[in-house]
Amino acid sequence: MPELPEAEITKRKLVALLGKRIIGFWSDWPRGLRITKTVPEVARDIKGLKVIRIRRQGKVIFFEMRKGGRAGAQKLLAFHQRMSGALILKSHVREIPRHIHHRVIFAGEELLFRDPRKFGVVWYGRLSAVMADSYLARLGQDMLSVSFAEFKDRLSLRKGMIKALLLRQDVFSGIGNIIADEALWRAKIHPKKRSVALLPSEVRKLYNSIRGVIKDSIMVRGTSMRDWEHPDGSRGQFQRQLKVYGLAGKVCGRCKKERISRILVGGRGTWICSNCQK
């Protein structure tokens, strides 16, 4: 399940596409398209566009493009990898993997969107139209750019369970199940604890823990547990450093007393040490 670290790593490894022009687009899954919703329409309109910037917000990767000079209308192509997606550069793989449902074609290169479960999303259209999409328009500030003061203020305005709150992309974008569970374990906070009940010291500890998990994950190239891999086909190693996520039944590595258990928080599977996290 790609989260902020995986999206950031993907963005960094796609910089080779900067300055390149698109010569074609293919898809066998039009249900994954947003804004411009038919494959022929996307293929016709996207041809000739030059990638002028690649950026990221939360888990979404954006390609800003123009056909002409600065006066040309700016278009946006955006990807959300969702549950099982991965963006792959064709030149870096020996064989085309299965489950490729979208292709962006450049001269001498292709950007492949592999998505076994077909939950991924591709937005394409004028910049203003894409950013007005109901999901993107509500996307919260990227967690790596949120200051502690902003983090504290946003938590103070809400009363829900802290784990459910962290997963809301309109509050802080980029946090997923792995980051949330690992950060709450580091901060020794129970995921069902109400945000308004957190002590000031716990808020500070949680903020530092979230950013620490994100940066530690990026440092070891993200988490590759099932489907996700880098655009060049390599895989992340953060799964080797997980302390609670997916480790039900294992003895907690900190207290050495309690076994990790799996519970549900807001309908999401959640892994905790009930001895450490209060």
UniProtKB/TrEMBL annotation:
It comes from the Bacteria. Residues 243-278 form the FPG-type domain. GO terms for molecular function: 8-oxo-7,8-dihydroguanine DNA N-glycosylase activity; class I DNA-(apurinic or apyrimidinic site) endonuclease activity; damaged DNA binding; zinc ion binding. Gene3D superfamilies: 1.10.8.50, MutM-like, N-terminal. Its cofactor is Zn(2+). It holds the Pfam family H2TH. Residues 2-120 form the Formamidopyrimidine-DNA glycosylase catalytic domain. Keywords: DNA damage, DNA repair, DNA-binding, Glycosidase, Hydrolase, Lyase, Metal-binding, Multifunctional enzyme, Zinc, Zinc-finger. It catalyses: Hydrolysis of DNA containing ring-opened 7-methylguanine residues, releasing 2,6-diamino-4-hydroxy-5-(N-methyl)formamidopyrimidine; 2'-deoxyribonucleotide-(2'-deoxyribose 5'-phosphate)-2'-deoxyribonucleotide-DNA = a 3'-end 2'-deoxyribonucleotide-(2,3-dehydro-2,3-deoxyribose 5'-phosphate)-DNA + a 5'-end 5'-phospho-2'-deoxyribonucleoside-DNA + H(+). InterPro entries: FPG_cat, FPG_Glyclase, FPG_N, H2TH_FPG, Ribosomal_uS13-like_H2TH, Znf_DNA_glyclase/AP_lyase. GO terms for biological process: base-excision repair. Transmembrane segments: none annotated. Belongs to the FPG family. Monomer. This is DNA-formamidopyrimidine glycosylase.
